[in-house]
Design a protein that fits this description.
Shape of chain A: globular
Oligomer: heterodimer
Distance between the termini of chain B: 10 Å
Number of strands of chain A: 2
CATH architecture of chain B: Orthogonal Bundle
Structural class of chain B: mainly alpha
CATH class of chain B: Mainly Alpha
Number of helices of chain B: 14
Number of domains of chain B: 1
Order of helices and strands of chain B: HHHHHHEHEEHHHHEHHH
Number of helices of chain A: 15
Order of helices and strands of chain A: HHHHHHHEHHHHHEHHH
Radius of gyration of chain B: 21 Å
Largest interface: A-B, 56 and 52 residues
Shape of chain B: globular
Mean pLDDT of chain B: 85
Helix content of chain B: over 70%
CATH topology of chain B: ABC transporter involved in vitamin B12 uptake, BtuC
Strand order of the largest sheet of chain A: 1-2
Mean pLDDT of chain A: 83
Radius of gyration of chain A: 20 Å
Number of strands of chain B: 4
Low-confidence stretches of chain B: 1-10
Strand order of the largest sheet of chain B: 1-4
Largest sheet of chain B: 2 strands, antiparallel
Amino acid sequence: MSAEAEFAPSRFSSVERSDRPAGNITAAALRFGSLIAFTAILIVFSITAPYFLSVVNIGNVLGQSAISGVLAIGLTIVLIAGGSNVVTGGIDLSLAANMGLSAAVYASLTQLGYGDVAAITASILTGSLIGLVNAIAVVYAGIVPLLATLAVMNIVSGLELVLTGNTVIPASTPCLSALSASDAFGIPILAYVLIGFTVFATAIVQYTPLGLRLYAVGEFPDAARAAGLPLRRLLAGAFIASGVCGGLSGILSVSYLSGSTTGSGEMLLPVVVTALLGSVFSRRLVPTITGTLLSALLVGFLGNGFQLLNILSTLVSGVQGLLILIVVSATTLLRRQEA
Amino acid sequence: MSLTTSKAANAGLHGIIAASLLRYGLILALMVVFAIFSAITPTFLTLSNLQSILVNNFTLLAIISIAMTFAVASGGIDLSVGTVMDFSSFAFVSLVLAGQPVAIAALAGLAAGALVGAFNALLISVIGVSPFLATLGTLFIGRSVQQLLTNGGNPVYLPPNGVPDFFRFIGHGTLAGFPVPLAIAIIITMAAAVVFARTRFGRVALSIGIQPSVVRYSGIAAPAYTAATFVLVGLIAAVGGLILTATVTVYIPSSGNAFLLNAIGATFIGTTLSPLGRPNVGGTALGVLLLSIVANGLLLTDLNFYWQQVGTGALILVVLALSFMNRKTSGGA
């Protein structure tokens, strides 16, 4: 987690509030508390479900988390650049629908006989176009992101239905088979994709001036404007980046499910939870790419553990809801204590 | 978003004309949409179809959107209005199946809605969670609880002969030729307008939405008002859940969420009517009317069913864009 230590020089935190040891301790307690909770969950599952801690199972969880992980990383970028206020700040509700449409575009093109290169290009293009529409609606029309992306979500999922007729479109190409395969140790290639993409996104968001600017635009827009940063372009860029993530995860989902499927909208809430939970795994309780990866894995392990223990899958949604509430309540109460 | 600062200073006369055009854009949009559908479909402009728009499209969405208007006007949002509908419907159906009188069952339905609202209020006012996250959590938990209650999401039917007459009357009856559910929706809408305009509660709720700090400094217990607002949202949405149940005589888990997006859309479309871009009951009602006409009209055209969703989404996006540009030019909110 040295990532944020790099990007957050001390003058930033002193703008927010004067350094208070008590505040740092509580924040640290929450952060370590969340890591401890994560470890505790892993330990409980590995004791109760012997298969849980096997390399193959962990690889599977990583692979299964790839689609939602890439989506959550896209959402994290929007959260960073849009600010932490959930209603007026950054959010992209069109991501899950974006994934569905991009997957449908990929599958339809392969059905029409196009090759992998054309299909991959088209999927990513679809994703970035959706991101562009979001960017225009939010940055240039000035619509609150929550509403703009809600409307775009509806349009996109409608387009997906138009394209697929609400049916499953099978797809199998060399590239898709390669993506959905496993390596010699039984670890899915998708797991490596997730790790690779996280490293890539972390490098850009946490270690480059561009990433630092995104944080500045989100948290201190006035200071960012005074410093001469192109706020609109940065925010628009964040939405387009998120759209590209939607396109990428569309490709991953086509390979994972061997085609496009209906009901991509179901992914939305888990992805929002993952991205919002991610900030608990960061030192200053801000969204970070690595934090989002950890939270994607936490959500993945929870679902997997429940499955192995034969706990009702219907409970997963409730547990996720409880998780948001507990985490957000804890952070809110801690912040109030500090203030 | 502080990015979209107002450019009102040098907008001048053009700005004023543009702003007033945008301000009455909602009424204009209503007329245009109405004219288009009257022209391109033979059945749109018939008495029975217009009545069907009001009863089948307008009624429920209006009630849920009025609930949403209270949440948004007080500076929040409620993503759990659908959950509230589901729980009130479930409470009602289970009690009727258990042999309780309709009145008791209906009261229990309302209580269930108020309870969900109180849960939101607890999270928002006492703990201080933002309304978006609090109600998102409620939405999630509500989904799980409903699946647990129904063995994984099975519908619960009221037996055909077990539906009490009075309840049938609420869902399908007419009073002197006027549909009862529509009458309930109109009464709720008018009552909401009175609450906002004439009561202390309504004015404080609106003020919390505009300037929460000023309300606090005035010595008003803002959290208590916010809490009451969310309980009220739950109550109103519960009425919607009961009417839905009375119409279809079945409880389907998580069916209320279908109204969520449109209720948010209608509320924000309605803000275009206010010079400051604030939520208001009249605007919400017109927003619901616009969405109802579009939904009905698109159904009458030969358009592919799936294109209708695209069309509705695009329409909401355009109206929202106009609404927020309006806000920028007039320098409000």
